[in-house]
Structure of Signal recognition particle 54 kDa protein:
Amino acid sequence: MVLQDLGRRINAAVTDLTRAPTLDEKAFDGMIKTISNALAEADVNIKLVANLRKTIKASVKFHELPPHANKKRIIQKAVFDALVDIVDPHQKEYVPKKGKSNVIMFVGLQGAGKTTTCTKLARWYQARGFKTCLVCADTFRAGAFDQLKQNATKAKIPYYGSLTQTDPVVVARDGVEKFKKERFEIIIVDTSGRHHQEDALFAEMVEIQTAVQPHQTIMVLDASIGQAAESQSRAFKETADFGAIIITKTDGAAAGGGAISAVAATHTPIVFIGTGEHLLDLEKFNPQSFVSKLLG
Ligand code: GDP
């Protein structure tokens, strides 16, 4: 189920209810059930769905509503707020400062979209007047440096990497040191992933983190991750303590409910979403506007 379908189903549930001949508590419960089913099918974590049910139910007290209350508005708002709550961890994201070197490190599994997203984010900051560069510390995946080089060249972003150095920690440290000396303001470090969570990956992440001391660590999650998102994001959080999430491939067939659930599992904000394979396919994420857009 794609994200738009989820939005349509939620909207339809609210509209059906408000058009029902008798807008009573039973019909309201039915609407909550329909919305919950749609969210569960979109892979939103089961516990979150249960919480949302309770929240919506508690925020509309049928017996206490004045006779002429606009029930439709009240119900719409309750649903909107409950959905915002799922994607809003109420945590502030790191805001890079002009005139100093801000180091941003990416983590995530192989194929999640790290390398692609690094360049997108670099371009995003570059377009906003930051002196921006990229460091490729992915020495694990053959071709990762070439891919980053090609992307960076296209976007006219300076980059650093090595074809001969196999230790990612050395590459990361050297690259960050060089760019700090050159007074770059945004230094984005791409790290390697693995196909699965594994000790070697986690050990490497910690070593790179210690070496480059990032101001922000961003976890990249593929929108299609499904219910595995919770345990995966928790495991990454425990090791790399990332402070932000980017969800990629939101243009694909997955509804992204799993990836969205990572927010609640780790109390970490989504900062951007990837909306395609191209350099400009990156959107700033904001909980309210995301839900507004979802509901059309
Ligand atoms: P990495 O192994 O984590 O570095 O992943 P890559 O950056 O190589 O991305 C893996 C694949 O996902 C590539 O084919 C990318 O073009 C694709 N990709 C990344 N982000 C997006 C996105 O937002 N939308 C789509 N459709 N594809 C994406």
About this structure: The mean pLDDT is 92. The longest strand covers residues 216-222. The chain has eleven helices and eight strands. The pocket of guanosine-5'-diphosphate is lined by residues 108, 110-117, 193, 248-249, 251-252, 274-277, 281 (CB under 6 Å).
